[in-house]
Amino acid sequence: MKKELISPLIVGVIVGALLMMFWQFNVRLNAAINAMTQLQQATAQNTQTVNDVVNFINQQVNPQASGTQTPANE
């Protein structure tokens, strides 16, 4: 090979390797973001379900405390 072709070839290989590393990092980062989004949605849905169940149990155990309290007679 000619000496003039070696330097651009080495620089091209290094730049290509860096681009592939950043592309791979971006792919993994997007996968992690998608997983976090799904986890947040599942957590929000489960939290709402648990709150509904707790509210139902509280209403069944103590119907007076369901939010419609009558004022005490003075």
Q: How does this structure look, described?
A:
- It contains one helix and no strands.
- The mean pLDDT is about 90.
- It has one helix spanning about 5-60.
- It is mainly α and about 70 residues long.
Summed over residues and divided by their number, the pLDDT gives a mean of 88
Count of alpha/pi helices: 1
Q: What is the 3D shape?
A: rod-shaped
Strand content: under 5%
> Unreliable segments (pLDDT under 50, ≥5 consecutive)?
none
> Helix amount, in percent?
over 70%
Class based on secondary structure composition and strand pairing: mainly alpha
Give the H and E element order.
H
Oligomeric state, counting identical vs distinct chains: single chain
**Cα-atom radius of gyration:** 31 Å
The end-to-end span amounts to 104 Å
Total number of strands: 0
- Biggest sheet overview: none
